[in-house]
Amino acid sequence: xLRGMWLRQRDGVTCGPSVAVMAGALLDADYGAPLNDAGxxxxxxxxxxxxxxxxxxxxxxxxxxxxxxxxxxxxAYGVPYRWRPAPGGVDDVTAALQAERPVAMLxxxxxxxxxxxxTALRDQTVRTYEPSSGRLLDVDLTDIRGARLRGLGFPxxxxxVLPTAGPAGPAPRPPPxxxxx
Length: 181
Hints:
This protein is of the alpha+beta class. It has a single domain (15-163), classed as Cathepsin B, Chain A (Alpha-Beta Complex), CATH 3.90.70.10. Helices cover 30% and strands 23% of the residues. The protein is built from six helices and six strands, in the order H-H-H-H-E-H-E-E-E-E-H-E. The protein has a six-stranded antiparallel β-sheet with strand order 1-6-2-3-4-5, sandwiched between helices. A hairpin with a 4-residue loop joins strand 4 and strand 5. Helix 1 packs across helix 3. The protein is globular and about 40 Å long. The two termini are 26 Å apart.
């Protein structure tokens, strides 16, 4: 689905909505159908705005998307999602990718700043959508584990937003992580 697409975030604070829209397109082919049309970038930009408004009801949009907002956005496509802080391994992340469920990853340096979307796993390589460039990049799983990310703009994962592990309902809420831009 994502092959050959160069869909970029529309401004400096819509990396989260861009990731949510792209994840929605992967989770629901009908929702993502406009990405196959000539006006894909126009639809993608408009949809970023709609998603940003819907997930940031109280949080200022100028400060980006919170992990809880990202979990709400991804859950809207029929698969319940939760967020958790990045420390603690990546077994649940790899399990989600093996089940063909995308995973949003909040990254930064000293503070969380940017959302990317993990879309597929092949051996120890994770296919990753980076919304500021619109590119698909391959990231080594050991670089995610070791907080040595390259090519994504920031080196360290802060949080993951992934499908819930249980049969229904949200997972317990982890401690808060500062929002990103």
